[in-house]
Design goal:
This protein is mostly beta strands. It contains no helices and 35 strands. Strands 23, 25, 26, 28, 31, 32 and 34 form a 7-stranded antiparallel beta sheet that branches. Strands 22, 24, 27, 29, 30 and 33 form a 6-stranded mixed beta sheet that branches. It has a 5-stranded mixed beta sheet with strand order 12-21-20-14-17, with no helix packed on it. Strand 8 and strand 9 form a beta hairpin. It is elongated, with a radius of gyration of 26 Å.
Length: 426
């Protein structure tokens, strides 16, 4: 009977009791941030995979359940009058207008490859929650750039204060799993006011992989607007030209892309008036982790041996190191200057070929701070102060893709809904 909700930012599990046992069910995100769970097998006589004496009875699998992962609640809706179960191989797809298409599924008369040949359209309760508002200025096919400029949405009706604007990736269901779905609530920059709200686009490619999405606004009563198809596109390529003989400076917060516990910290006087800090609450690691890395894409003019100098600050011995590598090679530990900003470099040179190369800086100790990077053949003399100017690229101007700040609320939760297909919830 339980379902489990995992918060990766807090490394915490929550448990909810559904009150209904079923297996081979299917789940899908809804635009208001709830999850619709339905279908599957229960204690119905003659159903394949039946669960004997399962709570919920024969009507259990016909009863849609709406799970709110933010409020940690479950609501049981009225069962539909279907004569047999709709189990393995069923399909549940969110439609543009907020309704849900339900089709397929095996029962005791329909086997795999010959599923039930009729479909149903389900209207979740939110469609009866007052007047439907509408997005009035976003055009079908409009592009939204990951990590780009804020988006102003004009609308009729109302928008709720919390998770009032969301992107929904289209579903792709098979074998009782809807593996392509994704719910991405957008953080509010300003508003709503006078029929307008400004939101930030998804911050990272991890939050919203490029592709087609439906943009919905959610009313104060919880009703979603009819969705508008938009295209989420990646930011412009960020590649740094590198001349090892002259040396090339890069702002640490200007990574081409990043994943893991890195945060931009604004501070006047630092390069670009900002630096990057490994989250002080992150877990210190002794082995480099490819999930906790900042990538810097390079275009090297001439191959050579490069020392990677870091202008960093190790506030304490527990926060004074990072890992550095190029092109997937061996990682070196770089120890930052203690309790002050200063330059240190890799112990040995890293080989950079001509053309496209990738520099990686991975988190090692929580709290480590990085301001600038210097790529050079010089291992003897550190730069004065901040060093020379950085290349004029979008990344060096601070248009970086930071990781999500986590949890529920405005924009930290996205991804596929948990599905219980292929297993029992009893």
């Amino acid at each position: 009977l339980p379902i489990y909700i995992y918060d990766p930012y807090a490394d915490k599990w929550d448990t909810l009791n559904l009150g209904i046992g079923r297996n081979f069910s299917i789940a899908t995100w809804l635009p208001d941030g709830t999850i619709l769970l339905l279908n599957g097998y229960t204690s119905e006589a003659g159903s394949p995979g039946a669960l004997e004496n399962s709570p919920g009875g024969a009507d259990g699998v016909r009863r849609p359940q709406i799970i709110d992962p933010f409020k940690k609640t479950v609501k049981n809706e009225e069962p539909w009058p279907e004569p047999t179960a709709r189990g393995y191989h069923s399909t549940v797809m969110l439609l543009k207008d907020g309704r849900v298409f339900i089709g397929g599924g095996k029962d005791n008369s329909h086997d795999t490859g010959c599923e039930k040949n009729e479909a149903r359209i389900y209207s979740p309760p939110y469609l009866a929650a007052g007047a439907r508002q509408a997005v009035t200025n976003i055009k079908e096919g409009q592009e939204i750039v990951v990590g780009g400029a804020p988006i102003t949405i004009e609308f009729s009706g109302t928008v709720r204060a919390e998770r009032g604007v969301a992107l929904m990736a289209p579903g792709g269901a098979t074998h009782s799993f809807n593996q392509n779905q994704r719910y991405v609530p957008l953080s509010v920059v300003s508003g709503p006011s006078n029929g307008s709200i400004t939101v930030a686009p998804p911050a990272t490619l991890n939050e919203a992989p490029p592709g087609e999405y439906l943009l919905h606004i959610i009313s104060e009563q919880g009703a979603p607007s009819v969705g508008v198809y938009v295209r989420v596109v990646p930011p412009a390529a960020c590649v740094y030209p590198v001349d090892l003989s002259a040396g090339t400076f890069i702002e640490a917060e200007g990574s081409s892309r990043s994943a893991g516990p890195f945060a931009r910290v604004n501070e006047a006087g630092r390069g670009n008036d900002a630096f990057v800090q490994v989250d002080p609450k992150a877990t210190t690691v002794t082995v480099p982790d490819e999930a906790n890395v900042m990538w810097y894409d390079l275009d090297v003019a001439k191959a050579g041996d490069a020392f990677v100098w870091l202008l960093g600050n190790g506030p304490a011995t527990t926060s004074d190191t990072v890992f550095v590598s190029v092109n997937g090679g061996a990682d070196q530990v770089v120890t930052l200057t203690p309790a002050a900003w200063g330059w240190t470099h890799t112990a040995t040179a890293l080989k950079l070929g001509a053309g496209k190369q990738t520099l990686k800086i991975k988190a090692a100790k929580a709290g480590a701070q990085l301001d600038r990077i210097w790529l050079t053949s010089n291992a003897a003399t550190p730069p004065d102060g901040l060093g020379a100017a950085a290349p004029e690229t979008p990344c060096s101007k601070g248009q970086v893709i930071d990781p999500p700040n986590g949890g529920g609320g405005g924009g930290g939760s996205s991804g596929g809904a948990g599905n219980s297909g292929g297993s029992s919830t009893s």
